[in-house]
Every structure is written in structure tokens, then in C-alpha cells.
Amino acid sequence: AAEGDPLPVKLDGASQVGELSVDGHLLTHAVVGGGAYTRVIGLPDGRLVSLGPRGGGPAPEMLLTIRTPGGETQQRDVQREGTPVSLVAVDVTTAYLLRPEGLYAHDLAGGLERLVIGLDKVDAADLAGNRLVTAERERSCRPLLYNVDALQALRFLPLTPLGCQAVTGLRLSPSTGRAAFSYRKAEGSVWVAVLSVVWLVCFGLGA
Fold first, then answer.
1. Is-contact 99 85, C-beta < 8 A?
2. Residues 121-142: pLDDT tens digits?
3. Residue 2 reports pLDDT greater than 50
4. HEC readout, the chain
């Protein structure tokens, strides 16, 4: 339980997601529309944008859900012929979806999509402003920083000196000055590293 809450709150992907407020309290939000969330992103205006499956079988729906603070909900299926899709980032107008062909900008109001940048077999990605960091499968431990406005690769953010075998997750700070990575070492242990994107300074923590 968060500090100040008398009882623990059970969270799981099929029922609730949790939001930790700045005063240390845990707020819960029910999953809307059935299924489970694979990722939830909160916007400054209070909206929650999530992506998750609904239904069984080999090709369930993948619902993109936008929920307002007043409880209004908008949903649409963003699945394409059973191909994988994941939610990378959201801003006020756009959800950024990772598909096999690359990163797409999905208009929250109307659902129109456009390809932002072509990518191949990405294990993890995050976008903030015009900066994108990807860990592509062929070189997972050498994530690459892009400028998506210029469609230009800027620099590698190497984790190989830290013993990385595979990146399992990453986040780019809102200022785009730092990137955090979780990665697996050869013996199976999971570590976290924070890199200064500008100066390539590494801070590591084992788990």
C-alpha cells in the first residue's frame, strides 16, 4: 500500500491499474471494456490512454481506450490482420503505436494513422518530443537514438560494456536528456541503467 493508505490495494491487468499521486497515495482505475491493459499512459489533462486485448482465439481485438476524468470512454480496435501492436507513447492528440513495419502516429480523435519511421523487430521503444529510442532485436544492447522530425539516427546508447545480453524495457525522460533501461545479463540477472543521452554517462543498479 502507498504511504498513508490503511489497506493494501491489489492490482492486476484484468481488473485495475494504479496511479501513484505526488502526495504518495495510490489511486486505482478500473479496466474499461473487458480484457486487460498491456500499457496505460496518463496525460496532463487527466485522460488515461491504454492498449490491451479483448476476446479469445488466435487474433483477439486490441482495444485502444481513451478515458476522460469524467468517465467518458472512447475505444477502437487497432488490430491489423493479427499482427502485433504495442503502445509506445501518447501526447495530447496522438498515440504512437509500434507495428511490424515501424512506428505509427495514430490520431486520437479520428483514428487515422501515418508511418513516422520504419523500424524492424523492435524489443522496446519510447518517444518524447521528437526523440525516439529503440532497442532493435538485432542489436538490442545498442539502443539507438533518433530525431523523428529529421528521420535521422543520432547516436547509439551502448549497454554492452555493462554486460547486457538483451534489453527488456526502456523509458526516455520527458526532457529527453536521460534514458532508463532494464536489461538482462548472461546469468539471467536483471539490471537497470540510466544513461545521459547527451554525455553517455551510465548509472547501473542490479536486481
1. yes
2. 999 999 999 999 999 999 999 9
3. no
4. CCCCCCCCCCCECCCEEEEECCCCCEEEEECCCCCCCCEEEECCCCCEEEEEEECCCCCCEEEEEEECCCCCEEEEECCECCECCEEEEECCCEEEEEECCEEEEEECCCCCEEEEEECCCEEEEEEECCEEEEEEHHHCCCCEEEECCCCEEEEECCCHHHCEEEEEEEEECCCCCEEEEEEEECCCCEEEEEEECCCCCEEEEEC
Integer Cα distance of 115 and 37 in angstroms? 24
Report residue 162: phi and psi, to 5°.
Answer: -95, 5
pLDDT for residue 37: 67
Q: Which helix (H) or strand (E) holds 34?
A: none
Cβ–Cβ under 8 Å, residues 54 and 61: yes
CA terminus-to-terminus distance, the chain: 22
Residue 40 pairs in a beta bridge with 50
